[in-house]
Amino acid sequence: MNITVLGLGFVGLTTSLGFAKKGFKTYGFDINESRLKSLKKHHVPFFEPHLKEILIETIGNSFLLDVPFEDAIKNSDAIFLCVGTPEKRDGSADLTYLFNGIEQILSVPTEKFQVLITKSTVPPSTLSKEVIPFVNQILAENSNRKIGFASNPEFLREGYCWEDFIRPDRVVIGVEDEKSKEILDIVYKPFGAPIHYVNYNTAEFIKYLSNTLLSTMISYANEMSMIAGAIGDIETKRAFQILHEDKRWYGDPAGIRSYVYPGCGYGGYCLPKDTAALVSMAEKNGYSPSMLKANLEVNKGIKPFLVEQVVAEVEPNASLGILGLSFKPNSDDVRITPPKEIIEQLLEKGYSNIYAYDPISNEEFKTHYPDLPITYMDTLDQLYEKAECMVLLTGWDEFKEKKGLLQQKKVFDFRYTL
Ligand SMILES: NC(=O)c1ccc[n+]([C@@H]2O[C@H](COP(=O)([O-])OP(=O)(O)OC[C@H]3O[C@@H](n4cnc5c(N)ncnc54)[C@H](O)[C@@H]3O)[C@@H](O)[C@H]2O)c1
Ligand SMILES: O=c1ccn([C@@H]2O[C@H](COP(=O)(O)OP(=O)(O)O[C@H]3O[C@H](CO)[C@@H](O)[C@H](O)[C@H]3O)[C@@H](O)[C@H]2O)c(=O)[nH]1
Pfam family of this protein, just one (predicted)? Predict the structure, then answer.
């Protein structure tokens, strides 16, 4: 199995050295001549621990920098694109280096099957909507070329490139054909990490899921420091230290991860009112907290977004079964419960046969919202009998336990419970 890597920056050099260390013959290329020159002199042109030692160990053996481009491409099974994808003026990703690299690769004639792998960070749908059509257009003139595709986003951090690459938490591979998958399987097996095969868009999305969570947490922390500053007399540093003592940050798996899951919005007596109250207090003190305001907006917007999914697939005269009424499982609290808003929106959309079942909150819900024209069912089996399709809004264990039964009908699992 031979590998070519295009782009020898933080990601490309680390990737090349990682594969070379695992024993694959790896050809490295960069359009930056001075970068290549220094690498050939065993000098890593940026600060990154460990890379120099591995460079010295592998160069001329499994890591090759002076093989002609054409020979390397002809001899490669997997070609990794690790070029830069910088930000354009309008915020979109500049894919110029990527497309130039692909053109160079395709200019080499060969009949060998090869996988073209985007390791550079590219927005979801880039491979399916831009790269593959681009390649197909070029190949229309050279039908002998056999190319497979894969997306293999990289999660390494600068400063820890080597450790992160050689001992990855997980490897994500977006691949949609068997031959390419087999090649990537061989390439990544020696790393001993979990390998997740997904489709192209999902692989690309996972990379952004990761980076935007990080950037959102950082901006959240910064916004909170600005709110604290506006209100005054708050020990911001201590406040954050104490925040971090919440046990949900620790453990394996850390409990905090149950907050990073999509669903139908947060509800209950605390998160909605407290988020709104801090927005209001910050504004009174002259600071407009844009993230917290956006947070409230998103919590509102998720409900019509989900209701539209039902509307798109279910006729209004169908009987709908609502699974769960409380704001979260193991509680009968129905104050500001997302199911209430969702049921109201379904009623507005013309769904008039709504049946509902909650393991413990039917009475509570009926008492709080007596005017909602819905029928309560005493058991899950009764609801299942009545409903043509179901909308799961609270992630009760009972629903998980009866997954087999529930899934015999259409279920909109808006808590990702099943
Ligand atoms: N830096 C990180 O920590 C990191 C981590 C994960 C993912 N990424 C992503 O990986 C990609 C590369 O990032 P980087 O930090 O390594 O960038 P970088 O700028 O350090 O390196 C990119 C290299 O590609 C070279 N190049 C451009 N066009 C080429 C071509 N046609 N053929 C050969 N070489 C070519 C450039 O000369 C440059 O040396 C980006 O999409 C980035 O978003 C970066
Ligand atoms: O509490 C924090 C933590 C970080 N930062 C800043 O966040 C930025 C990014 O930091 P870090 O994530 O350590 O750096 P990167 O090397 O850019 O790595 C990120 O970006 C890579 C490229 O996509 C991903 O592969 C990594 O998983 C992801 O962590 C830096 O400016 C840090 O100073 C803060 O301001 N506050």
Answer: UDPG_MGDP_dh
Is 389 marked active-site?
no
Q: Where are the domains of the chain?
A: 2-198, 209-297, 300-413
Reduced to 3 states, what is the DSSP secondary structure of residue 71?
Answer: helix
The catalytic residue among 82, 264, 270, 389 is 270
Which fold, 300-413? Answer: Rossmann fold (3.40.50)
Per the annotation, does 366 bind a ligand?
Answer: no
Interatomic CA distance for residues 294 and 219, integer angstroms = 12
DSSP string, 356-395: EE-TTTHHHHHHH-TTS--EE-SSHHHHHHH-SEEEE-S-
CA–CA distance, 171 with 114 (Å, rounded to integer): 20
Which ranges in 189-270 belong to alpha helices (H)? 200-231, 236-243
CB 107 within 8 A of CB 136: no
Residue 121 annotated in ligand binding: yes
Q: Is 85 annotated as a binding residue?
A: yes
Instruction: Please report the pLDDT score of residue 62 as a whole number.
Output: 98
Counting ligands in written order, the one closest to the CA of 209 is 2
Residue 212 alpha carbon to ligand 1 centre in Å = 19
Question: How much distance in Å is there from the Cα of 157 to the middle of ligand 2?
Answer: 7
Ligand with minimal distance to 119 CA: 1
Q: Which residue owns the Cα nearest ligand 2 atom 24?
A: 155
Question: Which residue ranges have their beta carbon within 6 Å of ligand 2?
Answer: 121, 154-158, 210-211, 214, 218
CA of 210 to the centre of ligand 2 (A): 11
Residue from 15, 218, 253, 219 nearest 119 by CA: 15
Architecture of the structural domain at 2-198 = 3-Layer(aba) Sandwich (3.40)
Query: What number is the average pLDDT over the span 261-282?
Result: 97
pLDDT tens-digit readout, 76-110:
999 999 999 999 999 999 999 999 999 999 999 99
What pLDDT is stored for residue 328 in this prediction? 97
Distance set, CA 184 to CA 64, 80, 166 (Å): 20, 11, 16
CA of 83 to the centre of ligand 1 (A): 4
Side by side, the strands of the sheet bearing 375-376 are 375-376, 353-357, 319-323, 389-392, 410-413
Contact 206/184 with Cβ under 8 angstroms? Answer: no
Ligand 2 binding pocket mutation candidate from 85, 218, 223 (most atoms within 8 A of CB): 218
